Each structure stands twice: as C-alpha cells, then as structure tokens.
Amino acid sequence: MANELSETQKSQIGKQNKKGQTYTDPNHLFFKAPRTAAFYTGSEVIKEAIRRANVDVMVAYPITPQSEAAALIGELYAEGYIGDYLRGESEFAVMGQCAGAAFGGARVFTTTAGPGTMRAMENFPMWVGSRLPIQMIVTCRGINSPLSIQPDTLEMYFLLGTGMLMWHAETAQDFFDWMLMGFIVSEQPDVHLPLALCCDGFFVTHTKDTVMLTPPDMCLPSYDPYRSPVVCMDMESPPVRMMRDPFIMKSNYISYMTHASWQEETRAACERSRKHTIPLIGGLIETENVDAEILIVASGTAVSQGREAIRLMEDEGLRVGLVKIKSLRPFPFEELREATKNAKHIFVPEFNVIGWLATELKAALPDNHRIIAGPHVAGGMTMPAEVIVEEIQKTLGKRVATLAARGS
Amino acid sequence: MSKEKIQICPEFSDIMPPEYRDLVEQSTYGNEDRGWKDIGNSKELIEAHSLCAGCPESMAFRYILASLPNPEDTVMVGSTGCTSLVFPMVAVHNIHSLFGNQNAVASGLKRALTVRFPDRIKDVVVLAGDGATVDIGLDMTLQAWFRQEKFTTICFDNELYANTGGQESGLMRKGFVAKMAPTGKKFDKVRLPEIARESGCCYVVNLTVSKPSLVEKVIKNAVLLAREVGPTYIQLYTPCILEIGKNSMEGLQEMRDSEKPGERFNYKEYITDEAKQYLADLDARKKAAAIPAAQLTE
Question: From CA B206, how far away is CA B209, in angstroms rounded?
C-alpha cells in the first residue's frame, strides 16, 4: 500500500500539537485542504513548508544561497514550531548532528549548498546505509575555483551515487509540495531513506513566485520511529548483540555478502519509493507534446527555460515537446523510454559544465545518438530561452541569428 | 526502557540464545548500585570482545559498562577503530556512523532524545579512541563542549592509531618512533584535559584503568554531571600493548608505571565548583534516603 500511516500516526489525526496545529491526514493536507495564494521567495516557501511539517530537529549552517532559509527556520524554532534547532560548526558536523538526531528517532531537516554539500559528502552514503529518513534541501551553487556563489548544479552529480532519494524541483510550488510529501515518502518502512530535495540556487531561492499554501493550522502527523526497518537508538527496545564478529574484520564470503546485500537492499528501497512517490508528486516525470519529433528533456529551472524556448519555436512553426524529470533517484527509466520513443532529437539543457543529466539519459535510452547534450551553461550563467532555440536550430541545420550577432 | 521490555515471551524462551536469556535474567539493568563488583556475579553488558588478548581496552570496556548509572536508558556513540569492533557485542544501543564525527552525532542524538522524552533521563555517552577524539574529530569534540552539549565524552587514549597499525597520533608522546613518525614524533602530546577544561567541561579526569573502583567512581560522576551540569571528559590510558612491544600480561603494569607521580597518566582531575556542589548534593540526598525513617524522627 502506498503512503500508509502507522497506528500511532492514525491515532494522532484530528488532535492538536502544542502550536494548536491539527495533525492532518497527509492525503487530505496535500489534495483536499483549501489553499491560499502567497507571493513568497523560495526561502520563505521552505519556511512555510517546515511550519507544516512537524519537524523535531533542524541543524543549520550558513552558506549562500541557503542561509536565508536556514535562518528563517530558526525563527520557526523561536516561535515553537520545531523541537530543537542548532547552528552546527561545518557541514560535515551538521550532517553528523542530523544523523545523531535521526538515529534517536527524530524527524530531521537540514539545508545545504555547493561546497558545503561536498564537504559533508562522507555522511550521505552513511545516512543511506543507516536508513535515516533525513530531508536535506540542496540549493545548488557552484563548487569550482575561483570562488563562486552562483547557481550551478554540479554538486547534484556527486549526490547521484550516494543512494539517497533525489528530487529536483523546478518551482517554488514544487518545493512547497514536495517537501511535505518528501517526509511521507522517506519515512515509509519499505523506503526509509534520506531525501535530497534539490533546486537551483537563487533562481528558486531568491526569486518571488506565487505559491498555493495549505492552511497554517494543519500539519503532518509526527514521524513514527518504531516503523523504521532498523532499530531506533533510544533504548526503548531490547538491545541485542548485533553480530558475533563485526563484518569489517572478516575477509570472507559472509562478510562480502552482508555488505553487498545491504547495498542492494538500500538501492531496492530507493526503487520501492516509486509507489509512494508517484501518487503524491504525480509521476517521476511530467510530459507535454511528446509525440513531437523534437524533445527537450530537463530537470530544475532548465525546464522553465525549455518551456519558454518551446513557446518561441511555436511562433516559428516548430513543434517541440517537453519532458520534466522530477525524480533523479529513483531514475525514471521506463517513463523516459516511453516518453522519448517518438523523438528524433532529444535536447538536454543543463546548468553545469559536464552535462550529467545527458550522460544519464545516454545510458538509459535506446538510440542515444538522438541525445544532444546541451546547451550547457555554468558558473552562474543564465540560460536564455534563445540559447536553447539556437542549439535546436543549429542541430536541425537551420541558419540562426546568434544572440551575439544581434547585439544587446 | 523499562525492565519489562526485556522479558522473553515464555513460548520462545527455550530457543533464545543463552546469552540473551542471561541478559534478561541476570543483568544489572535498573540496579542503582551497580558497579564493577557485579562482574562475575551477574551478566555483563559486554558479551565478548574481538580485541587482542590482554588489551587494556577490554578491561576499560568492562568497567565502564558495569559503572554506567542508567544503562537501561543509555545510548553510546562510538567511532571507527578498535572500539568499533567491540560495540556490536554491547547490550546498550550504540551508534557507529563515521570516523571522528562522534561528538556531532552525540549532539544530535542527545537533542532528539530530549525532544522525544522530555520527562525522562536518557544518558548519552561517547566512547572513542584518541585519533577520533583529538585528531580527525577535534573540531567536533571541542564544538560540542563549547555548546555545552550535555553528554559524556570518554577517550580511550592508546597514544597512537592502533587499528590501522600503530601510526602517530596527536596524543602520542613526543619523540616516540612510530609509523608516519619515522624519526620520532616532533611535537608534544596534545594537552586535551586542559583544553577540555578551558572549552567548558565541568568535570575532566585523566587516569588509567588500573583501578576499577576509581574508574567506576569517575564514570558515574561524569555521566551524572553531564545530565544536569554540563559536558564531561574522561581520558583513559588504554595502552596498545601490541604496538608498544609488550606482551599480553604486561598491560596492567604498563598502566601502573605510567600513573606514577610525574608520569603522563598520574591521576588528574578538574571539577568546577558547580559540579562539586552537584555531586555533594547528590551524595547528601543518597545518604538521607539511606537513613531509616525511624532514626530521622528520633
């Protein structure tokens, strides 16, 4: 069954927390509760989602462009919406503090970006192997030298292999909904994995957008740590001798098999998240006009730019379809194969220098000569819709008036 | 955890492993007066250990686990190294996550347990080696103390990286020749007890594990003070007999030699006035409770 609540959680529904918020059935909260429009920055939207998420512990650390969101959640703590909140000493420590809180049975939230995400990297496979359903917002930012604070999605490439669930939000509305939904998916007993919910820094965090918010007096039911597939470290269940010999000491088949099967299991848990995710975020991908011969396949704000490019090309009589990838882990193999089966040219615009999404697609789709890895921008460059149009027209052998030729 | 939670369903008792049956029937959970003298008379909370024969860490583990004032509500946090090979066989919940992040993990853990169990005592005890505590994890060790995180940090100081084969560590003596210090260590043993005092620990003790009664008293003080007063730090000499060229029988003598006056593990204690007062009050309350009511009314 998808997105089941535990008996403990069900018994909470209808009651109120200490802030007077009513614990609400997630499906009601997401799909039936009245919504009101608000005009907020992405950072403010993160705060509003957390206000409704019944978070036990949040650990913060300053790094642009997530500092504002992390500080706003501190205000929520001061108002009494969050159990505990601290500023850690570095991202490596922050992710350890998050792990400790999650081991202790708390619903845990943190935010990070770029170089901080890289510094913390050792923690993420550990979160996965320890089955800690921590939610981490990644507001992507350049990780290159010389120093940059600009949007650039390279750190997502490094997260792809950690075993975490990874979703890529396009808009502030995605962000608001997916944060709340993400806790529910992450905490399912057959998933129980951390979620990296990524967005493109500044483009989403620092711009204002209209977002439809759920009522502030409704919140998610509490996390129930006793549904975890591994023991909650609170000494509320009998301690057992976990193993006769620690596997690290043994170079033998049983030791290898234990590690290998656990890695397989955590990857399988990621795949099992589909059945919970799909009804909530409406599929791992979203498509428009995929019967067209030309497709743009993208994630994050590159999708928005792709949409704009499609509108420009429509004006010129060129029909282009769109695939928005919402979930990168699990990766929507089948969905993408189906959505791209008619395409002759598949363009993959990205905000990073290596084009990791195109690489992923080339490994996943048949006839991968159809995939054009670009256009890329990096280092904080914007991606005007015209750049995408130009890339498409060039590939089709059309003469293009370049942006540079036009002057500005 | 209440003691009832570790009862065995009668239908299954005959198929439970004997060590688990012993744990239910003969362990010292819930016994307020538990201590190292229970060793031999009751089921210890350490089932076995995979350390070298005669390793003083194994003694330290047994004394510490026998001395925890509240094991039924204690969660321990370890780190990578020899200690992490023992923890899977310890009958209190324990966390190993990475190398060196133990005080960060303990900070999050203690806060989560405080949020979830506001009316109960849940003790958190960190136990890690000197590489984890002083070298790779120093930042997080100190920051937890700066923040006054309420848990106990225990460092098994064997003055080197034992599990990786005897490399130089920050707590190694100056001049000691080791792997990665091929011409002898160039700088002094890091003075972590003094640093701990200056970093906000209310109780700091530097000692060996040669005297179980002393270890018991120190561990109990450290855990009780960390509940209410502030962070506490215990540095225990657990020599790596293998890497310093001693035999299995020589660990105890090595500790006795190193705790003589003027030696680096001569007993050293820092305690704040507040901590002293707290312990005195606890002691007075315990004594008052021990006096029969008849005597008080006389």
Answer: 10
